[in-house]
Amino acid sequence: MNRQDGTPDPRDPDLVWKIAPRTMWEQAEASGRFDGAPVDLADGFIHFSTASQLRETAARHFSGQSDLLLIAVNGPALGPALKYEPSRGGDLFPHLYGPLPLSAVRAVMPLPLDAQGRHVFPEGVA
């Protein structure tokens, strides 16, 4: 599902979301795959969030960090390697057990900071 401007509709229940530093994502694009951030590699899976989980994820794990990207991924394209598992407060979070194929990426958008240092999500996201 896309909006009129061609960006993914954040209400699309098939989307899962990844926040990543721009340089890390550019390396993934150059290599053709994303194996995860250091925390992902340490935990054995790539952490994703649903649209409703994004603001808290950004605040907890990326507070004040600039030059981040918000990556929209087609969850069903990841197949059985994507599992929803309990995390914060028992909420189910999407975890990918394996590399992220770039073919599953629907959009890559900047995630800037406002004057108060909070992340500014694209309209309708989070």
From TrEMBL:
* Highest taxon above the source species: Bacteria
Q: Which SUPFAM superfamilies match?
A: ADP-ribosylation
InterPro entries per the UniProt record, alphabetical: DUF952
Protein name, please? Uncharacterized conserved protein, DUF952 family
Upper classification of the source organism reads:
Bacteria, Pseudomonadati, Pseudomonadota, Alphaproteobacteria, Hyphomicrobiales
